[in-house]
Amino acid sequence: MSSSYLTYLVFIPILGLVVPSESFQALLQNPGQGVNFYGKAQSNPPPSESKAKKAYNDLMQPDSISCCSEENADNPLCIPIKLKPDDPFYSKFNKTCINLQRTLECSCKSSRRAQPNEASAHLDESQLYGNSKEGAMKARALDGTGQLKYEATSVGCLLPRGKNPDDPFCPVGYDSVCFKGADPRINHHTIVMSHFTIFLREHNRLATELKKINPHWGEEKLFQETRKILNAEHQCMFFKDFLPILLTPRIMDAFDLTVPEGENGIEYNSSVIPGTWNEFAISSFRLHSMVRREIGSLNLRFKQTFLNPLLIREGHMTEIISGIRQIPAEQYDRYMIQDFTDFLYEQPGVPYGKDLASFNIKRGRDHGLAPYVEVVKFCSEGTVLISSFNDLYKLGLMSKSNANLLKRVYAAVEDIDMWVGMNLEEHMPGSPLGPSAVCINAKQFYFMQKGDRFYFDIVGPEAPFTSEQRKAIKQSSWARILCDNTHISQVTKNPFLLPSDDNTNVPCSEIPKIDLTLWKDEGNDTIRSPQY
To answer: Which residues are registered as beta bridge partners of 6?
Structure first.
């Protein structure tokens, strides 16, 4: 079941109305003609984050109309990206346009165009299970084991083989090697495929262990309890290990997002709306500038992982996961690797791809995002007002050089796109992000945590777990999941950080495990979880 994206800032630019206005677009920087605004990536890694942090973030983000053709020049569903005739890259191939169509519109009566969100607004592994009963049933083995469908191969259990009918990420001719799953992004790139595979294996591992502990459990009980535990593992490692790196422990505490120790938990707040906000999905959590060109242990560029399931089928998953844990992420800034600005989703036999930087800018306008100056005002509760380009550096938001760059690109400071402004901000102390991105992300995850009545650490009569089970779940980690589901024998305690004196590699035997015997159930086959 889909819902529409929510919006923090009630701002209705022309592109947010039902009919886009070309005259309004002309007043703003053309994304395609601003390709060089996002420079090719320089190697400026932050000191401690590993590429695994950005890869995990990706796990957390098709064109059917030829919008570049003359027949669709006036199609209201089209927002193609026009390229300059002398574009330094695309002009080599006589390419003057990149196809892009508008996000579908919700069937709701409103002057403001609202976009449907097919993904769940919760951290609930819906990318593995689907977000409906029908999707979950297709993913399940339904053989009494509580497991998900998989393909047994010489390199281990992999996702089922096959192409989804609407999969835009399976190249022509790859139907026999592509993976099939609940999420259409499953063949997006090799790192995403690796994460899907690891979580599939973890589900089936948990189901196998629970069956040993509770041999009387039937298919439905096994599946639902396994699903509930895997969701809890993901939620715990996200809020305990990943999010503090992005937001800093201080911001985690300020927004009451920190995972309490032991049996302590949090209260569910029924007044909190757990929806996904446009400003988050289309701007603040698009951390694409942090991706490095190199994969790590394999001699590959990132563009070679697009739409390429063969790397997984050939048994390179452990090498890929090991590699991204050892190399630093890039800085969150205005630089983006060429693999994203020129080669995004490059198809076999085609010497170019698409441009993610332009897509991000254009998609923000399509969704009617407020300009950057409005998000600064919102996050500062009206105390920081920007009226000129000089204010950007005088108020300490960004460097003078970045402010001057924006001045050359945009006609007015009020025109700066939200995503662009966020990427150019000075980073907050201890965070790879600037204050506006930290603000929106923290607010989104507050709603996501406090508004989820199935969040693993909820206490009270409707709590999904006992206090002892919650305490055990807090032993879970990405490190433990990697140890249990790959051929890795040593791992850092927090793989989202680079190895260091404080984050050394240790044998998997030293990484804590969840005590699943706490789920031993004497003859009870009752299901206390959402059933899909």
So the answer is: 277
Distance CA 163, CA 118 (A): 19
The tens digit of pLDDT for each residue in 219-235 reads 999 999 999 999 999 99
Is 427 annotated in a binding site? The answer is no
Q: In which region does residue 388 sit, left (phi positive, over 0), alpha (psi from -120 to 50) or beta (all else)? A: beta
The answer to whether 414 touches 396, Cβ cutoff 8 Å, is: no
* Closest listed residue to residue 14, CA positions, set 450, 316, 370, 328: 370
Averaged pLDDT, groups of 10, the chain, 532 residues long: 55 37 36 51 59 56 74 89 91 92 67 56 85 88 97 95 73 81 86 95 98 97 98 97 97 96 91 89 95 84 91 92 88 94 88 93 91 96 96 98 96 96 97 97 95 93 94 97 95 94 95 97 64 50
Which helix or strand (DSSP H or E) is residue 66 part of?
A: none
Give the C-alpha separation, 291 to 58, whole Å.
10
Return the DSSP state at 327.
S
**Cβ distance 5 to 117 under 8 Å?**
yes
Range 485-492 contact pairs with CB under 8 angstroms and sequence separation of 24 or more: 485/198, 485/201, 485/202, 485/205, 486/198, 486/317, 486/318, 486/321, 487/318, 488/318, 488/321, 488/322, 491/325, 492/325
Q: Are strands 3-4 and 505-507 parallel, antiparallel or unpaired?
A: unpaired
Q: What is the pTM of this model?
A: 0.87
Q: Say which DSSP state 294 is in.
A: B
Tokens describing residue 188: 């997006």
- Total residues belonging to the chain: 532
Question: Helix 478-485 vs helix 219-237: angle between axes, to the nearest 10 degrees?
Answer: 130
How many Cα atoms occupy the beta-carbon half-sphere of 182 within 13 Å? 27
Following DSSP, what letter does each residue of 464-496 receive, concatenated? SS-HHHHHHHTT--HHHHHHHHSS--EEES-TT
End-to-end Cα distance, the chain: 12
SS3 248: coil
Pairing relation of β-strands 97-98 and 81-82?
antiparallel
What residues form DSSP beta bridges with 294? 301
